[in-house]
Write a structure and sequence with these properties.
CATH superfamily of the largest domain: Type I PLP-dependent aspartate aminotransferase-like (Major domain)
Order of helices and strands: HEEEHHHEHEHHEHEHEEEHHHHEEHEEEH
Bound molecules: pyridoxal-5'-phosphate
Structural class: alpha/beta
Number of strands: 15
Number of helices: 15
CATH class of the largest domain: Alpha Beta
Strand order of the largest sheet: 4-10-9-8-7-5-6
CATH architecture of the largest domain: 3-Layer(aba) Sandwich
Largest sheet: 7 strands, mixed
Amino acid sequence: MTYENSLEFALKLDEQDELKKYRNKFHIPVINGKETIYFTGNSLGLQPKSTKDYIAQELDDWAQWGVEGHFLGKNPWFAYHEMFAKPISKIVGATEQEVVVMNNLTVNLNLLLVSFYRPTATRYKILCEAKAFPSDQYALEMQVRNAGLNPDNAIIEISPREGERTIHNEDIITVIEAAGDTLACVMIGGVNYFTGQVFDMKAITAAAHKVGANCGFDLAHGAGNIELKLHEWDVDFACWCSYKYLNSGPGGVSGIFIHEKHCNNTDLPRFAGWWGQEKETRFLMEKGFNPIKSAEGWQMSNAPILTMAAHKAAIDIFDEVGMEKLLKKQRLLSGYLEFIVDDVNESLNGSDKSLEIITPRNWDERGSQVSVIANGYGKDLFDQLTKEGLISDWREPNVIRMAPIPLYNSYEDIYRFGEILKKAIDN
Ligand SMILES: *Cc1c(COP(=O)(O)O)cnc(C)c1O
């Protein structure tokens, strides 16, 4: 695609967009009377207009049926989570028994580490990327300490090479091989939240298995954003949240993946609760935990139906559109954002300032997100962009993270962003 930095060009792409009707299915925030340019779908996805009705349905059933809603409601709560198995398995590339929706992300990460990080006296190390999302860092640190180990020698972190911003997959693999049979587990953010880099999950998993370690990914920035084939890649476990790319509302429920070769293994250690118990015996209230033979066997509590209803509203849209169409538009849309940033950067040539895209430019290594370092600028640049109607994310000292979303962002959004950016830079 040869892009142009003009309104006419952006409007033409919008006209040809096969997903254009979906923008109107979302609430686009209007602040101070002005429709915003919303580029933070990687942080909190926008609300589908249908969400209210999905939640209202469950409130109505609760009003009408009380506890009987578990079995007599329109979508019986007893089995509510089961409605996600099919659509979610398509989003993450799994079989239906390998996924379940439950709890919140960091909770699930900890639960999965209980099963898949089982340190012994000789095999006790866990590998992650340096500067992982803080919640993941804290989870790993405490998992290691709970096992009586010292994080300083049990956690291996992989950094970008000197002077670089992103991590080479081959460096991860080299470190896995070097750790060899001391390595118990690999747990990496499959898509880095800061740079937007997508790791080669297939190759990393293969390398981990070769030395006898388990391998899992935090896909907070992956689910709904990139093509995933968790089953085929032979990944052992994964988890994600639903409120970023999956548009399911603040603090929304999380999903987990456990590979077929593990999820039927009832001997695999785990934390447990009654919702993981075989359905036939769950309500007998008897002694003895017999987990369901699927990822459902990792559930502990009964499902939070109201947030699950919000998730259902969003996932029904994903299911209608399908990942293939989303990914096709994503490339054009994020590619356009990349082009506009480069174009504005040209005007800075010869000055001591620049807009440096740190997200990899190769499509195997990126999704929607474009992270830009505003060299020579401070937070006033960001504040000015915000004043002009851009909602994006600023990380100190000078990184702007933006993720245009195929379901609800337009090419015009990106053109308008370019105009705002030029104006802010000229000031
Ligand atoms: C967003 C995000 C989280 C947030 O965790 P919650 O438990 O949902 O609050 C954790 N890890 C990563 C990698 C994230 O991107």
